[in-house]
Write a structure and sequence with these properties.
By secondary structure, the chain is α+β, with helices and mostly antiparallel strands. It has 3 domains: 7-223, 2-Layer Sandwich (Alpha-Beta Plaits); 246-311, no CATH class; 350-591, 3-Layer(aba) Sandwich (Rossmann fold). 41% of the residues lie in helices and 18% in strands. The protein has 19 helices and 21 strands. It has helices spanning 46-54, 78-95, 132-143, 180-185, 188-194, 213-223, 227-243, 252-265, 270-281, 290-311, 317-334, 341-347, 366-381, 394-406, 410-419, 424-434, 448-461, 485-503, 533-537, and strands at residues 7-12, 20-23, 36-39, 41-43, 64-66, 68-74, 104-107, 112-118, 160-162, 167-168, 173-174, 176-178, 355-360, 385-389, 438-442, 469-473, 507-511, 540-546, 558-568, 574-581, 587-591. The longest helix is centred in the middle third of the chain and has 22 residues, at 290-311. It is globular, with a radius of gyration of 29 Å.
């Protein structure tokens, strides 16, 4: 690709040294090795003008492009990450028929690997666009769908990526290039040994790379995605990028008007727009007179201000009420409910982006409560429910769902289907017909990032709908980094809220309680085991404990439980009595008094 007038952001010596914008062709490390970064995406000279004026790339919007499509695989278990990258490359070479020598592979220097495909493999002349980062993210997301450890945050338009053969100070190791055969044959320890020094390997020159048919089709698909609006916008992006290179006499005024309108619409104020156009005007031959340029910018600003004001609607309370009615209607559909009426009234439903934690000791019925709540919501809403079972095998999830739905004991289900194995599929079909929108994933040790990827995968490839509710059993089995269990659980607890917001779904998750609580002891908000972050990060907290109705080894058909609202960001607290039928695991309210 051409580097004419393309600029990058750099951070040499650490991320605190970012906001330095230079032409791509001038990028050099000049012998420096520690903590060096360059932007993933490339911009025109207007980025430099912006930074010269504001001292920051923050809030800059403008057309951009890239010289590659990168994939970043990260995880605490580097051997598992390495194995996933090997599978990923094998998948791409097989499915997309990408020549192996097109890949640029590298060890990141700490806990991951980078897989980079030059942009020339997708398109010979990538047109700059204000949507370019979104296009690359969509393409990378489709290509890496179903793979673990993929960090999708690198596709933000001002994202920086560590430069090859520079040192990661956390590990003291270099980010080094690798061949695919080295990736396959070397152990993690052997790769780390290589990373103690910079190294060079011969890579295929980009001049020898031509578009791969399958990648070109993928590029065309996402470049024209939502084409009724985007095609028009992207043609505009490309036109603007051409204007930035300067205009000839006779077309300078029109070019200045178009550029001024673009910058004002992007959020620049009048003075910053003028400063940006003054830099642009120097390229014109001859430049527009300063007074004329100022008049163009001022006129554009007045028109834009007028149009913006006219677009604002002033509401009276009757009109506002109509909007509120629409809001209430959409909110009602989006809320998740547990099916326990008194509790749901107090919580007023769990909105997308909110999280609810259920605390309880082992064997008080937490998992049964979670599955009851999930099935209740699935049946009442008709929306997909995705249950992450990190402790129970899928066979137990299936059997419990059948117990709850058909009011049978696990023994009855197992005994009947063992005698009549030919009936199993018919039984499963019958259960599916009752709860067709309840989905499960059985896997221990998932990270929050992996959970997010799997939810998005299910939405796009399994049920083709927005997830209504995510269930996670349980917090302590979600994998995270940290020097001890407290730090690890704290990260997951705080990340659960971020996950709910990122996915735009409500999440209900389980958590164990401190050992000093008995199964019969009323729980408090700070009862979560291993971390105090659970009560801080969750929007709602429910506690589940057994009601003392006899001896501790009570074997009555129903187990009486207390379900307490320990935290409620929308209202009052309290507790109700629920019964779990031991035989079927069905739960119901007995006393709805809060």
């Amino acid at each position: 690709m051409s580097y004419f007038e393309l600029y990058c952001e750099t951070a040499i010596g650490g991320l605190n040294n970012r906001n330095v914008v230079i032409p791509v062709k001038d990028f050099r490390l000049n012998g420096l090795r520690n903590e060096c970064y360059r932007s993933v995406f490339l911009f025109g000279p207007e980025l430099k003008t912006w930074v010269d004026k504001t001292d920051s790339v923050t809030e800059f919007t403008g057309p951009h492009t890239a010289d590659a499509v990168p994939f970043d695989f990260d995880g605490e278990n580097l051997s598992a990450v390495k194995a996933e990258v090997e599978k990923f490359i094998g998948y791409l070479t097989e499915t997309y028929e990408i020549p192996l020598d097109y890949f640029r592979l590298s060890f990141s220097g700490n806990k991951g690997f980078h897989v980079v495909i030059p942009i020339e493999a997708f398109v010979s002349d990538p047109k700059p666009s204000i949507h370019f980062a979104q296009i690359v993210k969509a393409i990378a997301g489709e290509m890496s769908q179903g793979f673990s450890f993929v960090d999708s945050s690198i596709y933000e338009s001002k994202r920086l990526l560590r430069v090859l053969n520079t040192v990661n100070l956390k590990s003291g190791l270099h980010k080094i290039p690798l061949t695919f055969s080295e990736l396959q044959s070397l152990t993690v320890d052997e790769i780390k040994e290589l990373a103690k020094e910079p190294r060079e390997i011969e890579a295929l020159a980009t001049s020898e790379i031509s578009p791969v048919e399958s990648l070109s089709a993928l590029w065309a698909k996402w470049y024209s995605h939502d084409f009724r609006e985007r095609k028009k916008t992207e043609r505009h992006d490309s036109d603007i990028f051409q204007l930035l290179r300067g205009a000839e006499q006779g077309s300078r005024n029109d070019a200045a008007i178009k550029l001024a309108g673009t910058y004002l619409a992007a959020g620049l104020n009048e003075s910053l727009t003028l400063a940006t156009l003054e830099a642009w005007n120097k390229q014109n031959n001859p430049p527009l007179p300063q007074g004329e340029l100022e008049g163009v910018v001022h006129g554009a600003f007045q028109r834009y201000k007028k149009e913006s004001t006219e677009a604002v609607r002033v509401y009276d309370l009757r009109d506002a009420g109509k909007v509120y009615a629409e809001f209430i209607g959409s909110m009602k559909k989006a809320k998740a409910h547990t099916g326990f009426e008194t509790v749901d009234k107090k919580l007023r439903g769990i909105m997308p982006g909110e999280s609810l934690c259920v605390l309880g000791k082992t064997s008080v019925g937490k998992s049964a409560f979670l599955q009851n709540a999930g099935i209740n919501y699935a049946k009442s809403s008709g929306r997909p429910v995705l249950f992450f079972s990190m402790e129970m095998p899928i066979t137990s999830v299936f059997e419990r769902a059948a117990q709850i739905e058909f009011e049978l004991s696990g023994y009855e289900i197992e005994n009947d289907l063992t005698r009549n194995t030919g009936d199993i599929q018919g039984f499963a079909e019958m259960l599916f017909s009752k709860i067709p929108n309840f989905y499960c994933i059985e896997k221990n040790g998932l990270t929050l990032e992996a959970i997010e990827s799997l939810v998005r995968y299910a939405e796009e490839n399994v049920y083709h709908d927005k997830t209504g509710l995510v269930l996670i059993d349980y917090l302590g089995l979600v994998k995270s980094s940290g020097k001890d269990i407290y730090e690890q659980v704290s990260k997951v607890a705080r990340g659960m809220k971020d996950l709910a917001k990122s996915l735009g779904v409500p999440i209900i998750f389980l958590s164990q309680v401190n050992r000093n609580y008995s199964a019969f002891e009323e729980l408090q908000i700070d009862a979560a085991r291993d971390s105090g972050a659970v009560d801080e990060a969750s929007d709602f907290i429910l506690g589940l404990w057994r009601e003392q109705v006899g001896s501790e080894d009570d074997t009555s058909p129903e187990m009486r439980l207390k379900l307490g609202i320990l935290k409620n960001r929308r209202g009052g607290l309290g507790k109700i009595t629920v019964e779990m039928e031991r035989r079927t695991l069905r739960m119901k309210e007995v006393d709805g008094q809060i």
